[in-house]
Amino acid sequence: MTGHGHGMMHGPGGMGHDEAAMPGLRGLDATPQESAEMAVMFRHFDLIDRSVETLPDGIRTVTNARDPEVMAALVGHVTGMIARVEEGRDPQVFIQSPTLDIFFARGDRIETQIDISDAGIVVTQTSDDPELVEALHVHAAEVTAMAERGMQAVHEMMMKRAGN
Fold first, then answer.
1. Which residue in 67, 76, 60, 64 sits closest to 119, CA to CA?
2. What is the rounded average pLDDT for all residues in the chain?
3. How far apart are CA 131 and CA 95, in angstroms?
4. pTM (2 decimals)?
5. Which residue has the higher pLDDT, 134 or 163?
6. Contact at 8 Å (CB) between 114 and 79?
7. In the chain, where the domains are located
């Protein structure tokens, strides 16, 4: 595998991450549209603003994008992933955090409210399951890191997991 001029490749023998094609955003059950939405968000993470309120029983996030195309991708991704969790349909995206595993296993124990306003997409998720609450807190921090640093944050998380 080579970069073929599409972006920087790294790893042993040139194998690894392709910044342009972003093959890690594909999944065993992810649609091309879902992968494309993630690619838009990663390419334009610098246009995304996000805040997280940690609740005793969950999270409240407010996420907005300063570009209509990025905002559309953001809304599509968030609503699509929440629907997948509710249906127990894990997309198995190659770079996805293992934190999501518990969501797909116990999604019926998460209460979700989504509001789209001028502030952005506001998501409140709560649960009476302490393990789910902890996973919501961890995942919110992971998503915030990706909104702040893009694919660099993903690389850092993957390297940290590989070191464990």
1. 64
2. 88
3. 22
4. 0.85
5. 134
6. yes
7. 18-163
Name which of 73, 69, 57 is nearest 25 in CA terms: 73
Q: Note the residue count of the chain.
A: 164
Residue of 68, 67, 146 lying closest to 100 (CA atoms): 146
What's the CA gap between 26 and 43, in Å, rounded?
Answer: 15
- The three-class DSSP label of residue 62 is strand
Q: What is the mean pLDDT of residues 3-30?
A: 56
Residue found under tokens 């091309």: 32
Q: What is the pLDDT of residues 142-157, one digit of tens each?
A: 999 999 999 999 999 9
Of the candidates 121, 118, 31, 35, the one whose C-alpha atom is nearest the C-alpha of residue 75 is 121
Residue type at 8 in one-letter notation: M
On whether the CB atoms of residues 124 and 54 are closer than 8 A, the answer is: no
* Helices of type H across the chain: 32-43, 68-87, 100-106, 130-149, 151-163
